[in-house]
Specification:
Blueprint (H helix, E strand, L loop, with lengths): L1 E3 L3 E6 L5 H26 L14 H28 L4 E6 L4 E7 L7 E7 L3 E9 L5 E8 L4 E3 L9 H15 L2 E4 L1
Parallel strand pairs: 6-9
Antiparallel strand pairs: 1-2, 2-3, 3-4, 4-5, 6-7, 7-8
Length: about 180
Amino acid sequence: MNSQVEDIRVDFVTGSRKIGNFCWAFILLSGALGFSTVGFSSYLQKNLIPFLSAEQILFIPQGLVMFFYGIAGSFISLYLWSTIWWNVGSGYNKFDKRKGIFSLFRWGFPGKNRRILIQFYIEDIQAIRMEVQEGFLSRRVLYIRMKSQQNIPLSRIEEYSTLEEMETKAAELARFSKLSIEGI
């Protein structure tokens, strides 16, 4: 999603609040609770899960390992839920022709560096760069190429589903900022 006024263009970037992250966090939490419950039921020698007999699983080593896996999965799930809650990675890219400044803003993890704001002069930008790698793990990323040959990513790897969508976005940015397009 973007917003464009005469001299200012703002492109919003989605962060961690994606359907895939919600699904993975839920699957991890469910699996972790299952492993922890099986490990705990083997310790108590009681059937906390009706379709699984606790007598078939010894606490040492199987029950203990399953309980450990459950705890580890819970921590990973907590991490994913935290990134979703804080919406890590979301923000915006802002081209301001009046001031001659390009601003890149992202939300990070809580702390003193939660707000990440990087600003460049538009005159220091050389081009809009597209990187495309097709195949099993395809990769389509838009960058800003600085005159110092540094590439600054404007999008996530999985943001563009088609090459045409990426080319359209790059053309809009290049047209607005009067820059050339590199890549492909």
